[in-house]
Amino acid sequence: MSKPNSSDPNAVPNWRLFIALVKFTLFTIVLAFSYLLLEDSIDEWINRKPIPIVKTVKRNRITDDIPWDKVVNGIHVRSGLYDDPNVQTIIGACTSCHSSKLIIQNKATREGWEQMIRWMQKTQNLSDLGESEPIILDYLAKYYAPKKEGRRTNIDMDAIEWYVLDLEQ
Amino acid sequence: MKEKNNESRRQFVKNSTLSSMAILLGSPVVFGAHLTSDIRPIGLSITDWNELPGKSNDLKVLNDRPINAETPAHLLNDALTPNDLFFVRNNGIPPKNVNAQSWTLTFEGESAKRKISYTIAELKSRFKTHTLNLTLECGGNGRSEYNPPAKGNQWTTGAIGCAAWTGVLLKDVLADVGIKSDAVYIGYYGEDSHLSGDPDKNSISRGVPIAKALESESMIAWSMNGQELPILNGYPLRLVFGGYPASCSGKWLSKIVIRNRVHDGQKMEGKSYRIPCDPVAPGAKVADEDMCIIERMPVKSLITYPKSGAMIKKGKKLPLQGQAWTSADSITKVEYSIDFGVTWTACQVSSVSNKYQWHRFVAEVDLPQKGYYEVWARATDSDDIRQPIILPGWNPKGYLNNACHRIAVKVV
């Protein structure tokens, strides 16, 4: 008496039909959403185009049509080094082994450049530079000297007078 | 001991100066030993002054016409900077033959209710006398570190000092003069003359907003550390505004104008004592109209003991002392680093008797192993603003460098 419909034999197939309908509706909604989300990529996939080939523009390195002695704004164009009566000595001694760019990006005192030459002689088969060495060192120390710049320089070590701080007093 | 060293050093400097005098004059200076440091033979003067009157020979002279001299950091270790060690930043030539008895200070201007003059005796008798410990720092202190470099006196760290100033409060005198409601600025005029000698030109005539003028620490002072003002620091009368560029604190003070507009005196306009209103890249060109007047000075500190270059034995603690100051209410923290800013340790910071006095800080520093160290100090103020460890923003005239101070130390 308390469950009047539970014994109704017609109720079971109606339930099943209802669940199938709900499943179908849910499936349709999910499909619709998926399409909305993926629309662009699906379109792209359907309408595939060949990947465009980007042409790289090759720039010529220093070419032979620049004269050996061309100077613009104080720079010897072929090497990028500062122009100077002795610049060809530097080019001859240094750039047969390495790029002039290695010089340009460095800064050192005369002593520092000398140390680099000694290192190259010791480890890189650089030969004795003979009479050219002082010319090369003068040139490098003049044009590629360290610069005091930046947001904070080192404390000036040359200006410090070191003293023993007597803490016994 | 330190005093003695200074004395012998002075003696040495004096002796070597006298020997060079002898070389220059071609004969020994007779009674040279009796010359005091204030006197030099007239033939040797390189400036209008034979020496820096009232100033220690230990000051580093950056310029002698006009006189500009800074104090080495290790000589700023006193709680109050002695008068002979207080830096000098002059824009013109100080007046000569000053008579303090007849000196007057005149008030006038569009926003003054009346024009009135006071003698120094009248200032002393009519208004309450105050003594305040106030720090003065040149707006260009630290300029030498900027890159691209800025023109002007290349101050390193020594355009700073803190003294006990005695005088009257500017606000008390302004109340007596009467300020109209449209007042916005006060400007000063002093009796120093223009470098060209042109009597119609002022060497400098700056000022402060009226609100700053009315602060309880803004003074008209006639005394410094219980003594007369040194002639190079404004004798017989000057303004003292802590927390503002020291150029606002007019010396040899003879006139104050109460303005209804921003004061337009010498070195108020153009690029003087101004920074770009909007931040700029290093080396940028900035038009005059895009430059804004510097008002508050930034938080800063200085290690005053030991002098850079100290070598101590391994195992000893390094005693560290210094001064820290701000235009905010107070200094809340000073820290030191011995590892280039990787770690910071707090120092003990002393309290002050009034706003704009510098705070002393002390610490005992452990240096763990032999070798080279830099000790850096940085202060934080009550606005929670602290010093940068690299340079602050570049500006065309190189003002306001408050980067942390550094000393070099070795453990041997």
Give the topology, please:
The complex is a heterodimer of chains A (169) and B (412).
Chain A: H1 11-46, E1 71-72, E2 75-76, H2 87-94, H3 100-104, H4 110-123, H5 132-143, E3 163-164
Antiparallel strand pairs in A: 1-2
Chain B: H1 2-25, E1 60-64, E2 67-70, E3 88-89, E4 104-108, E5 116-119, H2 120-126, E6 129-137, E7 160-169, H3 170-177, E8 185-190, E9 207-209, H4 210-213, E10 219-224, E11 227-228, E12 238-240, E13 253-259, E14 274-276, E15 291-293, E16 300-305, E17 310-312, E18 318-325, E19 331-337, E20 345-346, E21 348-349, E22 359-365, E23 371-381, E24 405-411
Parallel strand pairs in B: 4-13, 17-24
Antiparallel strand pairs in B: 1-2, 2-3, 4-5, 6-7, 7-10, 8-9, 8-13, 10-11, 10-12, 14-15, 16-18, 18-22, 19-20, 19-23, 21-22, 23-24
Notes on the structure:
The complex is a heterodimer of chains A (about 170) and B (about 400). Chain A is mainly alpha-helical. Among the domains of chain A are: about 15-50; about 70-145, Cytochrome Bc1 Complex, Chain D, domain 2 (Orthogonal Bundle). Chain A has five helices and three strands; from the N terminus they run αββααααβ. Chain A has helices at about 10-45, 85-95, 100-105, 110-125, 130-145, and strands at about 70, 75, 165. In chain A, strands 1-2 form a two-stranded antiparallel sheet. The longest helix of chain A has about 35 residues, at about 10-45. Chain B has about 400 residues and is mainly beta. Chain B has three domains: about 1-70, no CATH class; about 105-295, Oxidoreductase, molybdopterin-binding domain (Sulfite Oxidase, Chain A, domain 2, Alpha-Beta Complex); about 300-410, Immunoglobulin-like (Sandwich). Helix content of chain B is about 10%, strand content about 30%. Chain B has a five-stranded mixed β-sheet with strand order 5-4-13-8-9. In chain B, strands 6, 7, 10, 11 and 12 form a five-stranded antiparallel β-sheet that branches. In chain B, strands 17-24-23-19-20 form a five-stranded mixed β-sheet, with no helix packed on it. Chain B is globular. Mean pLDDT of chain B is about 90; it is low at about 1-50. The interface of A and B includes residues 148, 155, 157, 164 and 169 of A. Strand 3 (about 165) of chain A pairs parallel with strand 17 of chain B, so a sheet runs across the interface.
